[in-house]
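I would like you to help me understand the sequence and structure tokens below and explain how sequence relates to structure.
___
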Amino acid sequence: MIGKSVLRVEDQRFLTGSGRFIEDLSVPGELHCAIVRSPHPHARIRGVRAPADVLMLTGADMARDDVGPMRCGWALPGMVEPPRYALARDTVRHVGEPVAAVLAESRAAAEDAAELVEVDYEPLPLLENERCFTWTRGDRAAVEAAFARAPRRVELELVNNRLCGAAIETRGAIATGDTLYCGTQAPHHIRRYVCQELGIAEGELRVVSRDMGGGFGYKGKHYPEETLLVWAARKLRRPVKWIARRTESFLSDTQGRDHVTRAELALDHDGHFLALRVHTRADLGAYVSSFGAAIPGPIYSALLAGVYKTPAVFVEVTGVFSNTVPTDAYRGAGRPEACYVLERLADQAARELGIDRAEIRRRNLIPVSAMPYKTPVGPTYDCGDFPRVFERALEISGYAKERPPGRGIGIACYVESSGVAPSRLAGAMGARVGFYESAQLRVAPDGGVSAYLGTHNHGQGHATTYAQIIAAQLGVPLERIRIVEGDTAAVPVGTGTFGSRSIAVGGSALHVAGAKIIAKGRRIAAHVLEAAERDIEFREGAFAVAGTDRKVTFESVARAAYVPHNYPLGELEPGLDENAFYDPPNFAFSNGVHVCEVEVDRDTGAVQILGYWAVDDIGTVINPMVVHGQLHGAVVQGLGQALGERTAYEDGQLLSASFMDYALPRATEVPFFVSELDESQPCTHNPLGAKGCGESGAIAAPAAVMGAILDALAPYGVSDLQMPATPQQIWRAIMRA
């Protein structure tokens, strides 16, 4: 089953309208919640009033109940963490911050009543470069020395534009006294955060996340509404439901990226990279969100060696606060920002030295013979054939052919730290949570299998790919396998789905549990077959005595485990049910090369994408069809960042709070993709050989697209352009040049 494009088993349910999203859920007796949000980017709250017939809860009510602050899940050394509450108490720090909750018998009534709430604000000056943290990696002295000796250097100022996740389903939640139904990628993390703030044991709260209309990282983080609803339901002794409106989502969902970077590359006359120096200012927004500091700090900085053998690298990241919505993970989460810096520098160096852009990369790629390769910024790549993937991408894209005026081609090479994350390494850098994954395999007496995992399926096809792993390992037909995720009652512990980790970490936990099932099954089969355990082999769904035709099926062993009439009871417990935890020893380093060809209309600045080619090494591929779908979706989100998406603020006020102002890519703007998978370098440290795939396209696409646009504009004298490359911005750049 491994490597086959099996149709997704979950699609039938969605295509027939049988999905179960938060909006579809209802609990008898529920109250509807509307949230009063701050219209000010920074202000002191002097008072909150509502008519006597309006049921309103405020931060003062939460304070009286000793509800604690929201703490982030990853705190860097020396980091400043301003107190943040589910409902603001003394001050608000961004437009959209929750100030009060109004509850009524219907959503419309709650929203109408919220209009009657009066909040007395005292506006305060906007924050200006208030420091949160400074994070460094690499050898500063070695880099300074290399720059002093280098005959050539290249410098760029880059902006990585702030983005909104904009999933098709807005956030929402329903809380009873002991259960929180919400759309989250990480139910176990949310349970922990909420219970810590409410001062209750984790066993007192169940978190359930069923179907979810898009996650993209930002739905895997903790939000005020989760704590607010559970607290309100417990206080009022009635279920409480809240569903965000779209504008409310723009004002409250965590956002992504928002880097301003000065990057310098030192080279010799032949274009060999000698040293890299990067200074980045990362805007965290008003507060430190769950992983808001970790993404621009440890995660981003760890990838600034990329696929290149640069001998010396130094990175300094300064995280600052602003009166905007907090930033956190958005598909790629630190890796697209690193790729963009490196690939824009490579292109600029090629132009200034008069070397072909492909050739300058070729001269600097880490060879396969260098693996495992320890980078100057810390991580060790366990495997990867970067030159092989690079040459194949150039070949399938026709990179070398001549192009008419107005057309350009761009290249982006990337490395992704997927399979998040080794708990030990994360803990050493300030993580407050673990990053293992759990799996339970429960074999029924008839041989059917139920698998329970701590990950979450919201478009990744887990019901199919996990079943393929089980089918390949145990020989059980796909239709007899059931996958259960997203419920802390069914799966007591887990981590979740983010950071391209589900197959590499969750799938590995599943494989380890499967190995335990086989080990126990071998002992049962040895007893049934009256043979030594060491002589029992498991293959093609049956346990057999080596060298003979004597065997017993997996179903028969399962039956014997639960009907132990002929069973080694004194030596072995009945049942066939195993648990496993898997904590990866290292990241799984996915990598690849993407190539994009565009045509730019000189008179209007409009960009048409003519072709997009990708070769990705994601290790062992479980289901190629699912992987290609993940890659295509991520590429489209990368195209969106490069060409249109931008979260815009002016004096702390959000200007892009609707789809009239925030430009998502349309189907007509997306080309057909040519995508290949290279499986020659499976991950060396997990049992499946798998690497992550869900974010690769979003990592490479912005750099590939911008490289192509700048190539097309080069004849017009345009040498620099910031994202998003809208027609207006391109037209203005041409006119200036």
User: Anything to note?
Assistant: The radius of gyration is 27 Å. The longest strand covers residues 588-600. DSSP finds 18 helices and 32 strands in the chain. The CA atoms of residues 48 and 119 lie 4 Å apart.
